[in-house]
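note to self: the first set is below, dont mix up w the second
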Amino acid sequence: MGAYDTAIWSSVRSDVRCRKGSQAVKRANSVSSAATVQRRVVATCLAWLVALCSFAASAHPLGNNTVNRQAALQINARTLQLRYLMDLAEIPTLFETQKADIDHDGVVSQQEWNAYARQWAERLLAQLHLELDGRPVSLQLQSQRVGLQPGSANLTILRLEGDYTATLLSDSNVAVLHYRDDHTPELSGWKEVWVYATNGTLITRSTRPPKDRSRGLTQYDAYRTAPPNELTADATLDFTAAAAAVTARQDTPAVAASRIPTPTTGAAAAGATSSAAPLSMSQQAWAFFRLGVHHIATGWDHLVFLFGLLLLAKSLPQLIKTVTAFTVAHSLTLALAANHWVTPPGPWVEPAIALTIAYVGLVNLVWRSSAHGAWLAFGFGLVHGFGFAGALAQTLGDQRSTDHHWLVNLLSFNIGIEAFQLLLVSVCVPVLHWATSQLWFGTARRFASCGVLSAGLAWFLMRTIT
């Protein structure tokens, strides 16, 4: 082969190599592009998942420890009718069931529930205050009802209702009404007051709306922010004949539809003969264990915080230290609050928890090299412990003065929380370990950290504005 032919074959081989190299580059670029798209999709999904958790959590303002109430004030000419509803969640109901068992035979009969409801309604008379133009107005008890409904962990929910009336005597056709509820204001839960008028009276000014926002403490889904905390109401009433005519024309179906329904389930139903049995020590412990699992499983803010701690850990030993520090800290404040040695700082707890979540997300983004994960988890765990306590501190503290079961119940509740946390960690750790070997993990972790930060800030704004 001559020099010319050799040159031709060299040129052909070079061209083939260039074409193959070009195809390889295209394939590599295609793979890289697909990996980039996959990485972005996974990261975006993680971020949206964490962010959506915040809104899912805020749709459930109540819990197993709450005591919820509603007061409806209806003014009809010179008469006021007050219907007071109270809905006790599973844990408060557990202890009230023991109080209702007067003869201590282990079963609360219908007669005992009726006596309990009567005593409750009569105690309210001294704690509900009415004033008209600064002068006290006496309330009279008309009737009371009690009902039991099924709750979580095979426990029951107690509903109480009291009907009261008062005569509004005033020398003027325009008067100012003031209402105040002093019945256990320290208990956490939904506190709602609404005021409306029927024929004979016009409300010209009111600090409370004229509608039922929870449909008699049965629906809370419409509220994605903190539940109302209303214990007072002020209204200016116009009793003139013209006002009566206006009111007659304005008696709309919306007002009529918002009247509080009478409970028709459980012991409140006509001819009901149901009863409830107080739980033994072992049954209480098992119930509190399940309530602890339920509490943490539906506590999205605590779960997002725990997820942020998982992202912060660099190794399995550090992860164990971080989760253990969080566990010890919130167990400590939960026990102190239940023992009445420390009082949860009320309105500051929930916004503070939101800030801890936002801070963990920020640390993951900015100070990834920081080694204070365990100390961070311990300090913020003290704050989260107050969030776990809630009304549980009140109910267990009350039980402490009557029997020794409170410590077992507190331990069982806390073990339930830890059991679910350990289950979650055992599932997440292998997934995170696998994800760390993927090319897209760094970007996904940054997006997820942004989700944790955003969720914490969103919760903080919702809990401080309302």
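second set (the one i keep forgetting abt)
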Amino acid sequence: MAAKAPFETHHHITPVRTYVYTIVMLLVLMGLTVYVGVHPFDNTLLNQFIALAIAFAKATLVVLIFMGVRWSTQLTKFWAMLGFTWLTFFSVMAGDYAFRQYEPVQGWEPAGNSALPRSVGEYESQPIDPNSINVHPRQ
């Protein structure tokens, strides 16, 4: 009996009907996406969750079937899931960054188009606190 190589793998041959079923399912999900987009529900947040669920289902089908992760090793499945996890965390962080409200800090307001010091008349809507002005007398 011949010994197997330690990293010998087999090549999975996917039947054509699997690809046909996958394409039909992707077309059904695309039609559902269009329907949800044309006929929105009353709640915008519900629309977003439905659209994201459909997109997640389509991405999962593509990754599992067309990229062959379904028949791959455990390590490949781990890295594919880790990629989706990273994408989820990155999306949450980017959303937090994009929609966070910043506190205005004195001195961060946009400067005028001149290199000269700002005059009091430019910012009449904001009162100037005399204690915050750093003016040192000449010696």
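remember for set 2: The chain has a mean pLDDT of 79.
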